[in-house]
Design goal:
mainly alpha; 4-stranded mixed β-sheet; 16 helices; 59% helix; disordered N terminus
């Protein structure tokens, strides 16, 4: 395989997806936003102007001077994984990839003109080959979807918000945009997790990787089923106060919580949608220009409606009751906040013990 073409096949037998569109694996909320932006007249021009304002050249020079560029003579095993991922997702131009000295396990894909993938030494040392393959596929999925553009803008606006924090209205306006971008980006992470699974084609390796990011390199002390059970408990336990705490904990993050990501990926891996892709039936890149914005928004709305309908979260269940016209909503609301009602709940708020500055794989 070369930088702009393919001469080698993957290291082991995996399915390849010629001409696959990123729409095949994108989360409905992520897909609708991307389709709308791609259809927006003048969108490319605006971002070309923005690229002159963003420190992209500085970032490229920084990684070139302070990190190790992956290639045939440096981290060749990662380079093989990168080319393998691009081969499977049919991404013709292989992005540049760097390894950065940092004990925190992390990875990201940034850049406006051309995506750059960065992985930390902490991540490389934490994951085995198949787990790392899923992570590299995750980042290549970001590149194929064009997420790197919006991630770069998010980083820029977040830094800008810190610099103008002393301007009351200026900071509020920027943080409003940042909050909206974070909500979109959390959904884009679910999309990239799916891309990682399409590349690695080993759901257990994907699960292990997410579990290690959460709990470190202690597989003999951890269990995938128990880890997924945490996601179930996180969604369904507590009362309305816990639901509010979940929202407050999530708002400043660019990534979904790790147990939630694992549960979402397992659900998608078992879906008919995933099976159809593996069977060779998927949207093609050549048809992206004909995609309907209205249909994409309709699919996104349907997804959120289904989430509300099937969720076990107390707040979303209440929203579902309201939408369904359930009676005695005032009493239900009072009972949920006081912990009264069926089961004699204690009413104790038990918000998740989030670690400050938790590691997030991009």
């Amino acid at each position: 395989m070369t930088e702009t073409g393919f001469e080698k096949v993957p290291a082991r037998d995996r399915r390849r997806f010629p001409g696959i569109s990123s729409r095949a694996y994108e989360h409905p909320a992520d897909r609708s936003a991307l389709v709308a932006l791609r259809k927006l007249s003048g969108f490319d021009t605006v971002f070309k102007v923005l690229s002159g304002l963003l420190p992209e050249r500085s970032l490229r020079l920084l990684f070139l001077s302070e990190s190790v560029r992956v290639g045939e003579t440096q981290f060749p095993h990662l380079y093989a994984m990168l080319r393998d991922a691009c081969y499977i997702l049919d991404l013709e131009k292989v992005p540049q990839m760097y390894v950065q000295q940092d004990p925190n396990p992390n990875a990201m894909c940034i850049g406006l003109d051309e995506p750059i993938i960065v992985v930390t030494t902490g991540l490389v040392e934490l994951l085995d080959e198949e787990e790392m393959r899923a992570v590299v596929g995750h980042e290549v999925g970001h590149a194929l979807s064009g997420h790197a553009v919006y991630r770069t803008i998010l980083l820029f606006l977040t830094n800008l918000a810190l610099k103008v924090a002393w301007i009351p209205l200026g900071n509020v306006a920027i943080m409003t945009i940042v909050t909206a971008l974070r909500e979109w980006f959390r959904k884009s992470e679910l999309s990239a997790d799916r891309a990682g699974l399409l590349v690695g084609q080993d759901v257990q390796a994907s699960m292990r990787g997410l579990m290690k990011i959460a709990g470190g390199n202690h597989l003999h002390e951890m269990n995938v089923d128990a880890f997924l059970a945490q996601a179930e408990e996180y969604e369904s336990s507590g009362d309305l106060r816990d639901s509010v705490l979940k929202i407050l904990n999530l708002l400043p993050r660019t990534h979904p919580f790790t147990t939630v990501r694992a549960a979402e990926l397992k659900k998608w891996a078992e879906s008919r949608e995933h099976q159809r892709i593996m069977d060779g039936h998927y949207p093609r890149r050549e048809d992206d220009k004909d995609t309907s914005v209205t249909d994409s928004f309709r699919q996104s709305a349907a997804h959120y409606a289904d989430t509300v309908r099937t969720s076990k979260d107390p707040l979303l269940k209440l929203v579902g009751d309201i939408a369904g016209g359930a009676g005695d909503l005032g009493g239900k609301l009072r009972d949920k906040f006081t912990g009264a009602g069926a089961g004699g709940g204690s009413g104790t708020a038990t918000g998740p013990e989030g670690k400050g500055g938790a590691t997030e794989q991009g």
